[in-house]
Amino acid sequence: MGSGMARRLMTNGFSVAVYNRNAKKAEGFAEAGARVAISPRDAASGADVVICMVADDAASRAMWLGDNGALSAVKPGTICIDSSTITVSWARELAAAVEARQCEFLDTPVTGSKAQAASGELVFLVGGSPATLDKARPVLAAMSKSITPIGPVGSGALIKLINNFVCGVEIIAIAEAIAMIERSGLDRARALEVLTNGAPGSPLVKTVSARMTAADYTPNFLLHLMTKDLKYSLQEAEKLSLHLTTAAAALNTFQKAIGAGYGDKDISAAVELLRSSGRA
Prior knowledge:
Layout: H1 2-11, E1 17-18, H2 27-32, E2 35-36, H3 40-44, E3 49-52, H4 57-65, E4 79-82, H5 88-100, E5 104-107, E6 110-111, H6 114-119, E7 122-127, H7 130-141, E8 144-151, H8 155-184, H9 188-197, H10 203-214, H11 223-239, H12 245-259, H13 270-277
Helix pairs in contact: 8-10, 8-11, 8-12, 8-13, 11-12
């Protein structure tokens, strides 16, 4: 995701410094004209805008506040953006740390996957002040098809977790449906045509069911990351005195899929757990 985003910025004429914890993944950027940094601190040094896109709270904290973290180098007035899928509490804590450095913060998680990142068709879900968003808008526009302000800091993080828990539930629902179709002996192609062209046929269901049918689990969205997002969603809901029953059930199935060895495959691989056992 971060690679696609960085390349979109370069394509649109921005001067870019990149840092990746896996140095090999950053090698191609030097040839494309980017500066390859040796640490988050190095990447942030002198930047007007700093963007972080990593897996979770722990990775984000390390990028911003760890040894040689980005916040140790930012100049006053820098716009700090975290596009990772993180918890609301961490987004707010990070915002406070950014403000203490006399900088501005936006939490801007995205919808879309690798293909959308590469083509500049992400959707940014933004938490933060309208004034800060106005300053950052040209940068975000270079990587996206739309930018949706949600509310104050933490709002972007929260709606992303709500979005992803609904996606997780849909994925397990279509996985169970496919397992039921296959075990019953129904014509799978015709049955899925009914589902994908009818009321259940969301864009996600169409995309994921095609991957499940083809048994192509090349990662677009890693299964173990969906598990993380469901955990975060349940934690945020508990703070609101809500228990997300469907999210908890989906999490249970994804966790079992990780136990069965599918954690580093695409989210659609969850269907194989159901195919093999008949139940999650």
